[in-house]
Amino acid sequence: MTPDTLMTPEKIFLDGKTFIPAEQLPIPEWPCVVSERPQPTLTVKDDDLFFVTDTIGNISGCSLSEGNPSMGLFCCDTRFLNRLELQIEGRSPVLLSSTAEKGFSLSVLCTNPRIDERLRAETIGIRREIVLNGALFEEIEVSNYSTTTVNFELSISFDADFVDLFEVRGYDREKRGRLLRLLEPTTGEGIVDGVSPVTKDPSTFREESLTLAYQGLDGSVMESRILFQHRQPDYFKGYTAVWQLELASHETQKLGYRVNMLKNNQSSSTVSAAITLGQAKAAELMEEQHWVQQITRISSDKSIFNRVIERAEQDMYLLRQSFGKHKTVSAGVPWFSTLFGRDSLITASQTLMLNSQIAKETLILLAKYQGKIDDEWREEEPGKILHELRLGEMARCQEIPHTPYYGTVDATPLWLMLYAEHYAWTHDQELLELLWPNALAAMDWIDRNTKQTSYLSYFRKSKRGLANQGWKDSGDCIVNHKGELANGPIALCEVQAYVYAAKTRLAEIARMKKRLDLADRWLEEARSLKVRFNRDFWVEDQDFCALALDGDGKPVDSITSNPGHCLHLGLFTHERAYSVAERLRAPDMFNGWGIRTLSSLSPAYNPMGYHIGSVWPHDNALIAMGLRSLGLIDQALELFQGLFDMTSQQPYERPPELFCGYERNGDNAPVQYPVACTPQAWATGSIFQLLQMMVNLVPDAQNNCLRIIDPALPESINRLSFHNLRVGPTILDLEFERSGTTTACRVAKKRGNLRVVIEA
């Protein structure tokens, strides 16, 4: 509770406002409109805000109970609106068209149904525009296209349940805070007509704002404050604003409002909110334009491919989120719009050629939260990189350990890998020195945790933590060839490859820093790991790598995509790497769109399972990098083509977090996973990683060199260009052109003295 918040058993006083428990002041409710079928959704995002509606732009009071729990306006893991429902004469408008193409805004065009004898169908045009920029803004233009004057009622119903995002996802809570009612009606900041809802019917008093409020179990007071603009409502019924409109033939009237989200009377969003929708839109477009000027701009000779790339560039912009002074990419909307370890690190690695600033900010942010103590509840340990940070009421009340939560086995070696990769692209000596102590602490954590079994493994310690702590973190995915769950501690195959890569790459940095003791030790440990890994993880009768070693050191011998992550990191012997590559492309794994997470021959296979048969774009992009590293270029390009064909069929040409593992047959479309995040960070990042796979850029900014090794465009693309590509201090433009099976590269422009070596 803040110092400015005072309480009595009946009232709460906060900065001049008085609240009482909601049950002491019942208000009338406006009926919601029941949909005939589950509605598809539109999603918009700006920094730490996101908003999910149906295709009309509504969140019906009936929607959440009908299988759309993700709908709402969210900030900092709290839902600030769970109803926003426009009605005309108590009926839902009829959709004509809608889009969330811009990402931070949505536009809807709808009309009226037939209403008795006085309003013919499709005579009223309703144009809605909603924009996020530190707050939610909506403007509504209502036009009369009939030949006579019409009178009708337009209403917008609001509600806010202020539930924690973990509740939305299905976590149970024993207790909740309490909804509040604001005692004084306000006009801006003052009382209207000197009358309060205590002495006047709250369903009819006039005011220019509505306030919905809640007090959490931690004492924090959350508010959704709705300020109306343009034409004020004629009256309120509870939290429903009602306009009695009279429109002459072809007359248009404009309505609008702004929703500010507050915690203890301070803005919940880190973004300073604009005043009007026009200002909000201008601010967003200006920031986006600045982003576009900073990134590598990529284009081809094919329009559909360009649309996929442009969408990915825009989604990387949308997914950026502020955490204090720094920004990194949040993992995905709606469920994972926050700071992650693994997801942010993999995405930052995927996008180094797009904008290395993402990696820099990610490294600094995660170093800031690096583990310092041993804490079983949060699974924190000195040197460990976090898994997930949450800011909602359940985290603040210690009902979940995400303050932050450290239950991830792979984020720490991935941080070390990105630390080295970022230096290779940028030669950022200052950052290298700044984070060197964090790198040593991270390596010490790995060494401490590999002492007992020689492998980095995980085992849940927190009662509210994750049972599985690799990238496949659902409860049913670590299975053997019989489909039986493995017992921990679990040592995943790809995690050992990350450790191997971290040791070898950090050894080079240690040698450069004249720490020969560390360089020699890390290289020797990497060599030893490679020998042991190829002995202990190899399943001879499958001629394939085990998913993991279980708590008894026995191979978890199912056929999965995980060993594909090891291919480009050098951990396999040459022969075994080729065996893995060949097996991954067998029909039980490759479904025509991509490689499944689990073989379709497994008893545990489920094409709709989150990690037991579905296909993940980022998983496949990493495998494609591995195929390319083995010289299997045609096979890597085939994987690219399947993923590109899948993406081109998605709404807005946007790759989903995952899709179902059903076979690609003829003209059938890829089958969507029902609750996949979109946009999602490492799915979006996979577009850039696949481009990197094609052109095969190998930066060495420290030695002022860029190698381009045997670039190869797929048959679906003839030309590909990179503008504003940054390697160290140099900015250059590259152009690739395919002729038959050969791809040529030329340096079109260069600003700097970088040496570019093109190797065929």
From TrEMBL:
In this protein, which residues make up the domain named Mannosylglycerate hydrolase MGH1-like glycoside hydrolase? Answer: 409-649
Q: Per the UniProt entry, what species is this protein from, by scientific name? A: Nostoc punctiforme (strain ATCC 29133 / PCC 73102)
The UniProt entry's GO biological process terms, in alphabetical order, are: carbohydrate metabolic process
Against SUPFAM superfamilies, the record matches this protein to:
Six-hairpin glycosidases
From what superkingdom does this record's organism come?
A: Bacteria
Query: InterPro entries annotated for this entry?
Result: 6-hairpin_glycosidase_sf, 6hp_glycosidase-like_sf, GDE_N_bis, MGH1-like_GH
* Gene3D superfamilies in the cross-refs: 1.50.10.10
UniProt name for this protein: Amylo-alpha-1,6-glucosidase
One matching Pfam family: GDE_N_bis
Tell me the ranges covered by the Putative glycogen debranching enzyme N-terminal domain, including all copies. Answer: 44-258
